[in-house]
Amino acid sequence: MGRDFRISVSHFSAPTSPRPSQESVNHRPPVTDLSSPLGKIDGLERDELREAAYEVFFTACRSSPGFGGRSALSYYNSSDAGDLSGSGPGSPGKHHGVGMAVTSRVKRALGLKMLKRSPSSRRTNSCGAVLMPSSPTTSGPSSPRFGFTAPHASRMRRPLTSAEIMRQQMKVTEQSDNRLRKTLMRTLVGQMGRRAETIILPLELLRHLKPSEFTDANEYHMWQRRQLKILEAGLLHHPSIPLDKTDAFAAKLREIVDSSEQRAVDTGKNSATMRALCNCVVTLAWRSPDGGSTDVCHWADGFPLNVHIYTALLASIFDTKEETMVLDEVDELIELIKKTWTTLGINRSVHNICFSWVLFEQFVVTGQVEPDLLAASFAMLTEVASDAKKSERDPNYLKMLARILTAMKKWTETRLLDYHENFNRETVGLMENMLPLLFSLTKILEEDVPAYVADHRMENGTDESTGNRVDHYIRSSLSNAFNKMVEDEDVNGALKGGEVQEASDLLIKVARKTEELAVKEKDIFSPVLKKWHPVAAGVGAVTLHTCYGTLLKQFVAGKAPLLNETVVVLQRAGKLEKSLVQLVVEDSVECEDGGKAIVREMLPYEVDTIIQKQMKQWIQERLHKGKDHIVRAKQTETWNPKSKYEPHANSAVELVMFAKEAIDNFFDIPISITESSFHYLVEGLQNIFREYIAFVASCGTKQNYTPTLPPLTRCSRDSKFLKLWKRAACSVGVEDLNQILSGDGSTHPRPTTSRGTQRLYIRLNTLHYLLTQLQSLDKTVSISPKVLPNKTLFSRRKPSSSSSYFDSSLSSLQLACHHVSEVAAYRLIFLDCSSVLYGSLYIGGLGNSRVNPALRVLKQNLTLLCAIVTERAQPAALKEVMRACFEAFLMVLLAGGSNRVFCRMDHPAIEEDFDHLKRLFCTCGEGLIVEDVVDREAEVVQGVVALMAQPTEQLVEDFSSVASEASGIGGVGQKIPMPPTTGKWNRSDPNTILRVLCARKDRAANHFLKKTFQLAKRATGIRLI
After folding, report:
1. C-beta separation of 491 from 507 below 8 A
2. For a disulfide at 618, which of 23, 562, 603, 668, Cβ 3.0-4.6 Å?
3. Residue 1017 φ then ψ, to 5°
4. What is the DSSP letter of 326?
5. Around Cβ 862, how many Cβ atoms within 10 Å?
6. Confidence tier at 201 by pLDDT (50, 70, 90)
7. Residue 203 and residue 735: Cα distance in Å, rounded?
8. Are 969 and 976 in contact (CB under 8 A)?
9. What's the superkingdom here (predicted)?
């Protein structure tokens, strides 16, 4: 077992750092997570172990000066501190007075500062305030039996002895010290040369100290209980030599210890219990590993009891007033503490690891304010590393080495895994000291502690190389700092259940604080960490980028797309990303790959892509709402006017409001509008408008109201029955017409416009309302400063097309307006006015059914039309009514059926009626239809009326000519084919001329039709109208 203690100064290379300010110390959280790696000794508290340690120490040092040895104390005053070079602490040559060392070899080796305290501060006064009584029976200052020497009363002060310093450091009372001295005096009578390792100290104390020497029975009981617990721990629980479980002495000792719990054991000379106790303890303590004889008793050298006692002794080197400082007398005290090695089974290797632990523990429990203690612990690890590599290593040493180094590593690593919380600008020097300490601890554990690497990697699953560990610390600490920031701001709560505005405000705030955290990392911690990691700041930036990116994804996934607040958050995230990337680039300049590897870890936020994706999703949601408007309109629209002043459908108002809101919200989004997104929105809105326009225009066609053309027949000469039939038919029509004209008895006829036709007017108003609103919306879009030039948007169209953003919808509206106007006009003329026009005009001859009654009804219907249809829509609507009316007049003349026959003499009356009809439309409204338009539309009708004035022979000739020309027949005698009915009446159309002939009440016409086409005669029956 080694007895030497060495520290190699050359091996110490821990960095030094400035001592933290008091302010930073006051703000440091209390340390509660450093526990003894050796565990607890059952039944023994730390104070009890400390008292036991002092007893072992005093016993081992009893022969040294100041402890009762034969040599008198040496005393030096301040003027006697001469040259001490060449005499190390504890060297056998010459001893200096305690407390007078100019320098300390231990402190110099560990990098610790001298206290430079005045010698008088460690001196006792002449009144003996801290004097140790030397005699167990007297209170005098000395005892010749033990050779104690004290200064004469005339001397005012003297330096404290090592024994006195040790008693004060270990907080042992004078009463306890006196009792210990008495026991040793009684034990060593005649055996002054007896070695300490042969003394079973607790047993001797139990034998020689009586209850009367204590203040009361309880104090004695507690003291006795401690001595028995020490014996139990050293002999039964933690023996240095394995103990057989069936050992009778062990069982008896356990019985005695258990019995002492209730009351004190009788330790008198005649006590059987005491004799049994002595027998058991002596037998168990003097065992040897091989069963042979031994010259050392084993009662306090079992692990971990011996280490607990020894670390309690080592802890005495710290000043009780300034706990972060080591006493200047540390050399002398350690030399004295070494005397306990044989009793406690300690060697140099165990001492080194214990000393490193004690220095480290003191650094922690004093608030981590003295970096020199950390550096000293690191210096001792150099010795520990050397010891750990020895081939012959005790299993208990390896166990202790693993436990202590693991505890130190765990505590240090915990601080480094959250260094943002544990360090600041003033205390970063401590972090700088901890890193090499941690790497040294890890290296020893990995290289010299069996199975550590496998167990640790299985537990953590990480690579333990230095660079990777620092990388792990950076990522862990910044993640913790970021998470704490998020927790303090309750961001997660806002994301889960808060308002969008609240969440976005917090995300923006977190982005700003993240930038501040990155700057803090770069300025304070990265310079320290860069010694072990080439891109420390870059790793920090990547970590923060990932942390914020996770938060951003959560925010984007949980919110409606493209709210303004969302865009602001995304833009702020983009700014943060740029600053973090710039930090990585700057930190990676010196890397071989230029930082490409670390940059690849930064998965881009892709803010622009997300915004565009969100933009598209936002547009899709708006368009979906627009389609919902269409569906709802199709289900509920009744085509009643919204109000008296808004004669259009309410569904159109809702649709326009939706479109305006969508475009306004789109422009309110605080981003630059891209052409693609704007085009996507406009096209989507146009599709919605076109679908709605198609719905409005889905009111059938004019063909639904146009009467079916009757078959072509020829007129025969009048018979008496025919004349009677004409009178009956005429009377029926006139009676019905008179009923319509009389109405409810008023002088003016009532309008015959049906509800269905009026709803068509509302459809027409709705289309014109949409037309006006779309033009206004287009103007709003055009003047918006956020809209890019629309050259590309319109490049797909023909150069001649308009430059409106809603050109497609406007074109659809124009067509729809014309279609609805046409359908409404045909319904009005051929359905609502059928009784006065096509259904009655000229039936039975012109005499009883002229156009004037129909004109009065038409005028009322046109007045109602102008009252319902908006001004903007009236011209087109009236024009379509005029066309329908002219079409009806033509059908009366050309396809009036069997009830209508004409002769050449009817022409003036028909021409006059048509002129009245024309005048109706020219005078309707205030110039809604100009006379030129009426004349142009009337040209076809006038041409047909002109045919009715021609002789039959001329008509036959003209028909034969145009029919032959149309069919391509040119030969004389060839049969003329039946001309097809085109529906486009014209005086040059053979079918039109043929129909004039069919309605001609003339023998020549009758003969031509019978001969040429074998047309049947008209049926003679009364047609009720």
Report:
1. yes
2. 562
3. -70, 155
4. B
5. 24
6. very high
7. 147
8. yes
9. Eukaryota
pLDDT at 26 over 60: no
Peptide linkage before 304 cis (omega within 30 of 0) = yes
Phi, psi (degrees; rounded to nearest 5) at 902: -130, 155
Task: Tell me which residue of 803, 861, 815 sits closest to 836, measured CA to CA.
Answer: 861
| pTM value surpassing 0.70 | yes
Question: Contact, 230 vs 300, CB < 8 A?
Answer: yes
Between vectors from CA 211 to CA 208 and to CA 214, what angle results, nearest 5°? 100
Q: Which of 424, 614, 626, 444 is CA-nearest to residue 524?
A: 424
Q: How far apart are alpha carbons 346 and 359 in whole angstroms?
A: 18
- Separation between Cα atoms, residue 659 and residue 152, nearest integer Å: 110
Distance of alpha carbon 349 from alpha carbon 390, whole angstroms: 10
The neighbour count for residue 365, using CB atoms within 10 Å, is: 14
Structure tokens at 339: 């005397």
HSE of 881 in the Cβ direction (CA atoms, 13 Å)? 35
Secondary structure (H, E, C), 630-688:
HHHHHHHCCCCCCCCCCCCCHHHHHHHHHHHHHHHHHHHCCCCCCHHHHHHHHHHHHHH
Q: Which amino acid is at 220?
A: Y
Burial of residue 852 (CB within 10 Å: 0-12, 13-18, 19+) is exposed
Chain position carrying tokens 């005029």: 882
- Tokens 């300025």 correspond to what residue? 523
- 644: Cα separation from own chain's centroid: 53
The C-alpha atoms of residue 975 and residue 1014 are separated, in whole angstroms, by 12
**Residues in a beta bridge with 754:** none
Query: Tokens standing for 673?
Result: 């509008």
Q: Is 744 exposed, middle or buried (0-12, 13-18, 19+ CB in 10 A)?
A: exposed
d(CA 128, CA 155) in angstroms, rounded, equals: 11
- Contacts (Cβ under 8 Å, ≥6 apart) of 858: 833, 836, 837, 885, 920
Q: Is the pLDDT of residue 233 over 80?
A: yes
Q: What percent of the chain has pLDDT over 90?
A: 56
Phi, psi of 13 (to 5 degrees): -140, 25
Q: Exposed, middle or buried: residue 327 (CB in 10 Å: 0-12, 13-18, 19+)?
A: buried
pLDDT digits over 726-739, tens only?
454 444 444 454 45
Q: How far is CA 122 from the centre of its chain?
A: 63
Task: Output the DSSP codes for 127-187.
Answer: T-TT-----SS--SS--TTTT-----TT--EEEPPHHHHHHHHTT--HHHHHHHHHHHHHH
Dihedral sign for Cα atoms in the order 876, 879, 881, 883: negative
Structure tokens at 845: 């001859």
- Alpha carbon distances (Å) from 743 to 205, 736, 737, 750, 751: 139, 11, 10, 6, 9
Tokens of 315: 């802890």
Domains and CATH numbers, the chain: 46-285 (no CATH), 469-605 (no CATH), 611-700+758-804 (no CATH), 720-752+833-1013 (1.20.58)
Angle between helices 248-259 and 217-232 (to 10 degrees): 160
Q: Which tokens belong to 1021?
A: 């029956």
Residue 1021: pLDDT above 50? no
Alpha carbons 889 and 838: distance in angstroms, whole number:
7
Alpha carbon distance 500, 862 (integer Å): 57
Residue type, 758: Q
Residue with tokens 């097309």: 801
Locus of tokens 């097809």: 980
> How does residue 2 score in pLDDT terms, banded at 50, 70 and 90?
very low
Q: How confident is residue 192, by pLDDT bands cut at 50, 70 and 90? A: low
Cα separation, 1017 vs 718, in Å, equals: 12
Reduced to 3 states, what is the DSSP secondary structure of residue 116? Answer: coil
Once rounded to an integer, what is the mean pLDDT over residues 895-914?
91
Radius of gyration of the chain (CA): 59
